[in-house]
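Hi,

Apologies if this is the wrong queue. I'm a grad student, and the batch job for DUF2550 domain-containing protein from Gordonia soli NBRC 108243 produced an output file that my downstream script rejects. I'm not sure whether the problem is my script or the file. Here is the sequence I used:
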Amino acid sequence: MSIVVSVLGVLLLVAVIVCGLLTYRLSQLRRVGTPVLLRELPAAADEGWRHGTVHYGDETLRYFRLTDLRPGPTRTLVRQSIEISGRRRPEGTEGDILDGMVVVALEPGADGDGRAYELAMTPGAVTAFQSWLESRQSGRSQRRRSA
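Support response: The file is valid. Your script probably expects a header line. Output copied below for reference.
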């Protein structure tokens, strides 16, 4: 009987630790990021959306999935490689979870592995995302070095 109680006690402790880590991650991400939904393409018309937040850096866009316990970003997109291929309104049943959002399609390769993504954001977040992209340094412009 004491072995069963010990095993249940350990399982309860593990469950409490996991819940604590998840609560901490959710509170940290909601406080400092821009809420988005992301999905990897190809995907069915209304499937594959994952809730998360994005954090803008100098050279990367880091996506943190809300239900992931890992300490780092779930996806990292390289700023110089991100190209917007289109935007659209939610279609079909996507409207249930993406109400009032704009879906931005990204060209394949933003993550360095050749995958394509879609981001669903509020119109204000789309404006911020586009401003962040447009303010990047051109790949052709480099500071000249004196010989």
